[in-house]
Amino acid sequence: MKRQNNKEQWLLYIEKLSRSKTYRLITLFLLLIFLYFSYKDISNAISSGVSAYKLSRFDSELGALESLVMFCGNTFVYLTIPLFFTKCNSKKIFPITLFFLYYLCSFYLGNRSTLLSGLIITFLLYSEIYGVRKAFRLRNIVIGLLLLSAIQIISIMRGISANELLTYNDSVGFSDIFFTLITSPEFYAAQMSMYGVLKFDVAYTWGSSILFLFSALIPTFIGFERPKSIYEYYVMGTIGHRPEYGVTINHITGWYLNFGLIAVIIGAITWAAVLRFFLIRKREFIYMYGAVIFSGVSTQMIRSGIEAYKGVLLLATLVPVFIIWRFGKRYKKINV
Fold first, then answer.
1. Which residues have CB under 8 Å from 325's CB, separation 6+?
2. pLDDT score at 335
3. Cβ 98 vs Cβ 80: under 8 Å
4. Is the confidence at residue 310, as pLDDT, over 50?
5. Fewer CB near the terminus (10 Å): N or C of the chain?
């Protein structure tokens, strides 16, 4: 009975969001900003005959605007997902159309991390509303695998030039997609970072990541230069500046490099405390969805240090939750 009451409250909250024209205009506005600036990199990649993925990462014209554009794209995703759960099928056309445009742009740019987080968030939200049992129905599993394949194919195609993508005729099988998914070095490289720190006896920074987080309150697009991240410190302390190598850092290693072993324990407590804050209040939709977003986006913390809290907690969780609260604060709960 308690789950049923929660489900009714959550679905009514979602219906309120889906009926809000201003809320939908905000999602559209965020997507248009993302598409407008991202198109510049895509068009430059087409004209120069290179991969848009490589150009956007190493030779983008966005400069300081890059973080703002990515923020708009990510926030669009996290605000649009609840609209998929409206009971009115005609209202689903709007978020589906916008998401398709976002996927096409991300496909050309080779960006899949936010799409993967979005898929996880969608699964977790479905599980909270309808239960884990229903989430694992055969139909949902098939849809999930198809969506995962559509996202994972980005990692296969993103090294190809933008021109070649327009005329690409080679077939890509499901086995190819699955193989690249389980063999991606991103899943394993970060786990080796602690061994690198111990091998090279990298010294602690005594809180450089905390300083970075405070400085992160000032947006980069206004020209403010932040201190080095723990990732940069890790690279220089292990392999040095060697562009032929691609390395990444584990979230635990990021904590360890700041304050040592005690920081690993503090890091685990911090992550659990944030999630607990949302979960003990999850009868209200904004807190439940906050827990869902934080859990889904936390997958991106695996390959970053304490600095990830700026993107994962502040930008990816608190900002969307605040916007949702703003448009749902007049919502009246069902008496339970």
1. 286
2. 38
3. yes
4. yes
5. N
> What is the pLDDT, as a whole number, of residue 129?
95
Residue 83: both structure tokens together: 């609209």
Residue 301 to residue 307: CA distance in whole angstroms = 9
- Taken in order 281, 286, 289, 294, the sign of the CA dihedral is negative
By the 8 A CB rule, do 41 and 61 touch? yes
Q: Is 223 left (phi over 0), alpha (psi -120 to 50) or beta?
A: left
Q: Which two tokens stand for residue 81?
A: 């997902």
List C-alpha distances in Å: 81 to 73, 78, 96, 238, 293: 13, 6, 9, 40, 10
Average pLDDT, integer, range 94-116: 92
pTM of the model: 0.88
Report the distance separating Cα 239 and Cα 233, nearest Å.
11
- Nearest-CA neighbor of 310 among 212, 230, 182, 165? 212
pLDDT (tens digit per residue) in 52-63: 887 777 777 777
Map tokens 């690279």 to a residue: 235
Most confident of 5-9, 130-134, 233-237: 130-134
